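Please fill in the sequence for the structure shown.

STRUCTURE ENCODING:
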């Protein structure tokens, strides 16, 4: 019973001092501020004896994480310290601890509990008393790292207008506040190729905590005369506590286009294909699709091979025209990036050779021959009737001459 009474007395003596320490030590004292992830630093817990008739004997202090978040982020390397005796009023002692902040620790406040174990004066043989100072706080300042995590633009064509989406992510451990993204197209080689339409060149990203994302959108116009190549557009990200530089990589691939012409040669339809773009086209093929205006005898697809910029070649088809003059054509090719692409074309076609124009000169020729055959057959069928009619006409026309000739013959017979 006497030991219990002594223990209670020691706690009563300690209570005023511990309350004062609790009020004065809400935040842990660090050797430098701020403290960042990856730091290994010392922290101190100060104590001051302001009680009357209160003594601390053989006092030891432990620093313990107050929750799982603190335990994962802060590693206490030296978790106990001995501060000895505090027998006089205004005596001061400091418990020193070595800690390491995890590299992945997120910016914020981390809570610890401080356990103080001590004995009162002349209390030899009694059980040491332990008191807890709760919610000792360590502030960790993270280091924000803003990255351009994704972009919707890669390759563009001269003369095109493109909607661009840029996504930003805070890959660091701290908060970046009041961020802006500045896109710089002012240099000569960029200004002649690109312009941002309507929205200016500065975009607000707001504030980004660790792990957060945001995005911006704008319209990028490409000059029709822009040269092919890869362009790096400078990008600056800045804010209250952050600044970094990056770039947007944009490729101008140039256009691939074809010009078509034709001629008739020996009854064949000879189609010429020229690459009038700036990029090479590989494995080029030409197809005359099924259509109402024209018929194709044999294969309707011809593979004409590779065409560099400015090259041309020909494909031969056997074509007949039904009606109309617009011919649909499909050109397929593989671009410089290995992607198979298609271009549809329409060209006006007038065919004049007999084989290729059923409704033209050959049709008239055939019609003439067909008509002549029918007239001949009709003439043969009506020949006897025509002969009788002709004889009748001749008889009427020569009736008087025939009568006179008949009388002369009769007179000669009478004389004989």
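FILLED IN BY: designer on duty
SEQUENCE:
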């Amino acid at each position: 019973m006497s030991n219990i009474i002594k223990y209670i007395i020691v706690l009563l003596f300690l209570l005023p001092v511990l309350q004062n320490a609790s009020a004065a030590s809400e935040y842990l004292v660090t050797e430098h501020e701020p403290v960042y992830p990856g730091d290994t630093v010392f922290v101190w817990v100060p104590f001051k004896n302001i009680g009357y008739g209160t003594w601390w004997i053989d006092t030891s202090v432990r620093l313990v994480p107050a929750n799982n978040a603190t335990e994962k982020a802060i590693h206490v390397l030296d978790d106990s310290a001995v501060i000895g005796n505090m027998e006089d009023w205004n005596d001061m002692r400091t418990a020193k601890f070595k800690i390491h902040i995890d590299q992945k620790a997120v910016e914020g406040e981390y809570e610890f509990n401080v356990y103080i174990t001590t004995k009162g004066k002349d209390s030899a043989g009694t059980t040491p008393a332990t008191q807890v100072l709760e919610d000792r706080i360590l502030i960790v300042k993270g280091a924000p790292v803003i990255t351009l995590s994704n972009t919707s633009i890669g390759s563009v064509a001269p003369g095109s207008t493109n909607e661009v989406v840029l996504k930003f992510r805070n890959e660091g451990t701290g908060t970046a506040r009041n961020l802006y993204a500045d896109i710089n197209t002012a240099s000569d080689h960029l200004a002649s190729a690109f312009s941002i339409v309507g929205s200016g060149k500065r975009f607000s990203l707001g504030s980004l905590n660790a792990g957060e994302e945001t995005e911006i959108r704008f319209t990028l116009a490409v000059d029709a005369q822009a040269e092919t190549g890869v362009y790096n557009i400078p990008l600056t990200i800045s804010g209250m506590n952050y600044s970094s530089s990056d770039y947007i990589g944009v490729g101008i691939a140039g256009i691939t286009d074809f010009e078509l012409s034709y001629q008739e040669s020996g009854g064949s339809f000879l189609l010429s294909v020229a690459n009038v773009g700036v990029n090479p086209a590989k494995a080029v093929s030409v197809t005359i699709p099924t259509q109402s205006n024209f018929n194709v005898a044999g294969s309707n697809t011809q593979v004409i091979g590779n065409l560099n910029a400015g090259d041309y070649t020909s494909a031969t088809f056997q074509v007949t025209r039904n009606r109309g003059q617009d011919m649909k054509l499909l050109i397929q090719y593989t671009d410089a990036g290995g992607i198979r692409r298609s271009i549809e074309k329409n060209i006006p076609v007038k065919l004049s050779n007999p084989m290729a124009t059923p409704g033209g000169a050959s049709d008239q020729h055939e019609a003439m021959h067909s008509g002549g055959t029918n007239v001949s057959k009709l003439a043969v069928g009506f020949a006897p009737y025509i002969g009788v009619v002709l004889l009748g006409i001749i008889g009427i026309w020569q009736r008087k001459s025939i009568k006179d000739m008949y009388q002369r013959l009769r007179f000669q017979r009478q004389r004989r």
